[in-house]
Amino acid sequence: MRLQTSHKKILITGANGQLGNALKAVSLDFTEYDYIFASKMMVDITSENAIKEAIQTYQPDIIINTAAYTAVDAAETNEEEAYLLNEKAVHSLATLCANHKITLIHISTDYVFDGNSSIPYTETSTPNPQTVYGKSKLAGEIAIQGIENLTYAIVRTSWLYSDYGHNFYKTMLRLGIERSNISVVNDQHGIPTFANDLARAILRLIPQLDDVSKGVYHYSNTGITTWYAFAKAIFKYSKLDVKVMPVSSKEYPTAAKRPKYSILDCTKIKKTFEVYCPFWEEALKK
Ligand SMILES: NC(=O)c1ccc[n+]([C@@H]2O[C@H](COP(=O)([O-])OP(=O)(O)OC[C@H]3O[C@@H](n4cnc5c(N)ncnc54)[C@H](OP(=O)(O)O)[C@@H]3O)[C@@H](O)[C@H]2O)c1
């Protein structure tokens, strides 16, 4: 039997990560919910028992799964670990959510696409991941979609940054203090997404998420840029005097191939849930 509380309860997994911290920050503006922020120590989602215990203890109405194997390059050599977290654990979590009538909000990525497009990817564009990370995240999406009687949203996002965790924005701020010039890739196009904007969109879609509106959604800030132009903007707004030099992906090889084009079309989420997607440079300025 469920405890009688006036507020719906949201359990956030992976809560010590970047998006988990952003959700913590914006939750102060969404006081209609009770929150349980569960770090990996509190709820290891690779343990079915740990998920069951958490459900039993906290009796959440909604679970937001921000936990993931996010080390894109390391995933190329740690395939098993990436799939364990991004597919197998997600499948267990989603199954338990369905059994307990808990709504699941799961976060996915632009890496499910191959990056060869020249027009923004919609939710109906065909995925074609080129990396282990992207493949394991797509496998997680498919696992969720295969479960009956589950109310869910899979929210794909791109180029996430914030004041928390490891991300490009924080790396640039650190390098900007250490160096007077820096080379940054200028042939990959995408949209930086401020994690607090994504967190706000997630909390905003909850009241309208049901069996009709369930499905895959894209959420990012708007516009289009490159890592080079993003780095320049970061230094401009943080008033760091750093010379940024554009380089090509060939000059900056990585274990996992990066998509050349990662623009997500966010029309569906805006229309369905009336969420706000600020222009990326405005979000950065703030
Ligand atoms: N970052 C991006 O640019 C980006 C872009 C598109 C989509 N996404 C997606 O957005 C979501 C959030 O990303 P993020 O940047 O917030 O990731 P993050 O900072 O790496 O956070 C992930 C969190 O998951 C935790 N975790 C790892 N293994 C776990 C386990 N077995 N059980 C429970 N928690 C576990 C991690 O804890 P430890 O740190 O203690 O291991 C970490 O706190 C992910 O689904 C990611 O795939 C990210």
Properties at a glance:
286 residues; alpha/beta; six-stranded parallel beta sheet; 12 strands; 36% helix; 18% strand; globular; binds NADP nicotinamide-adenine-dinucleotide phosphate
Provide a descriptive summary of the structure in words.
The protein has helices at 18-27, 48-58, 79-99, 132-145, 168-178, 195-205, 227-237, 267-273, 280-285, and strands at 8-13, 33-38, 62-65, 103-109, 152-157, 160-161, 181-185, 189-190, 193-194, 215-218, 225-226, 243-247. The chain is an alpha/beta fold and 286 residues long. The protein has a single domain, classed as Rossmann fold. Helix 1 (18-27) packs across helix 6 (195-205) and helix 5 packs across helix 7. The longest helix has 21 residues, at 79-99. It is globular, with a radius of gyration of 19 Å. The model has no long low-confidence stretch (mean pLDDT 96). The structure holds NADP nicotinamide-adenine-dinucleotide phosphate. NADP nicotinamide-adenine-dinucleotide phosphate (NAP) is lined by residues 13-14, 16-20, 40, 44-46, 66-68, 70, 85, 107, 109, 137, 157-160, 165.
Quick description:
With 286 residues, the chain is α/β, with parallel strands linked by helices. It contains 9 helices and 12 strands. It has a 6-stranded parallel β-sheet, sandwiched between helices. The protein has a two-stranded parallel ribbon with strand order 6-9. Strands 7-12 form a two-stranded parallel sheet.
